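Sequence in, structure out.
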Amino acid sequence: MITFDNVTIRYGDDRSPVVRDVDLQVEEGELLLVVGPTGVGKSTLLWAVNGLVPHFTGGHLSGRVTVAGRDTRTHKPRELADIVGVVGQDPPSGFVTDTVEEELAYGMEQLALAPDVMRKRVEETLDVLGIAGLRDRPLATLSGGEAQRVAIGTVLTAHPRILVLDEPTSALDPVAAEEVLAAVTRLVHDLGLTVVVAEHRLERVVQYADRVAEVRAGGTVAVGAPGRIMATSGVAPPVVELGRLARWEPLPLSVRDARRVAGPLRRTLASRLALAPASARPVGSSVALSARDLVVRYGSTIAVRQLGVALAEGEIVALMGRNGSGKSSLLWALQGSGPSQGGAVTVGGADPRRRSAVERRRLVGLVPQTPSDLLYLDRVADELAQADRESSTGAGSARSVLDRLLPGVADETHPRDLSEGQRLALVLVIQLVARPRVVLLDEPTRGLDYHAKRTLSAMLGELAGAGTAVVVATHDVEFAAATAARVVVMAAGEI
């Protein structure tokens, strides 16, 4: 179905190819998982499947990519749209209509499908992805996770033979992620759909993969059975790392697999484990932020209901809850830039909602779900230098923080050319260099590999140790367990 024949891809004058000498065949009805560190070239490999590389991104592709017998060198993306559906890392950027149902139908209109066929496929897609309740919703009101599912639905309605997904569960809560992956695997098993998916949250998807393609530093790609690749992969989920330490054979790829073989190890460790709870990071007694009676309303929809919360200095709080529960609305209200129709917020004796943008940034820093919204200059170096100037820190301060969190991001790179994880890291650095009293992060692990997440956790720990209060809105259960001292769960705008 998909063939890479000695494919090498490089951009501009860069002599180092993003991927090199790739030979790969993906069969009909196969689910191929693409893994690798942040920024290593996974998206480039995916975009080569439908000709976005090089027809849209530019660069030079040597070798040949054929899809269902069509050569991507001679067939542009629009000439492959009937057989390849692609969902990128930022689904809302691809929406072109106003409501969910219109968006689901739009792609089929471009393929000139009959109205009765379109109606049938819209209903099927709403059911298979569990989004029937969103049918009439304006796209602008969707949460990140809801938008992700709608974006997958827009390509499924065209009934492609190949589905390419770039970080499909990164913005989804655990239940929604399982529903999407269950739907995708049903399409693979029941309809023979070929799926190529890149994902950092490997604990969610690796057990479903038929094979794994690991993109390594230098651009080489290793392909094999999931267990064989995970045994030596530089990126692996926690359950696989546990299996490596315990030397379990075969290597478990899911918690269920691990439970089956964990008995002897559990008994061995029982006498050695201390029963006392693990010591949490010390939390200061002073209140860094307090909010009471907060109300956020969008038309008739109440996103935050009379909510009160207090954060202590040096405290790390995980804000969790299903998609659409009000987490992002709460963060924006606390930061002061978002809408709020009632209540009070106090940080250091001031209400950030009534301060200038520069003053607000020194009180509360916010990293949004779509970090590219805060990037407007042409080079990474310019963004970092601007952050240093606005924060009155020494030249190079922001650069040193970025190099620690995510090394290897070149100064001359345009921020829009960065991967989702790299853009997030850049915006996080821009916020941190101002040294705000409170830091709010909305899905900060989206697009980050495991090494970058461990580094981020350590950095947040250092911030907390210096007295900064940190709130992390996340669906990443493992990250919350490793990082936070307290969890606040939201549902329907309430705690």
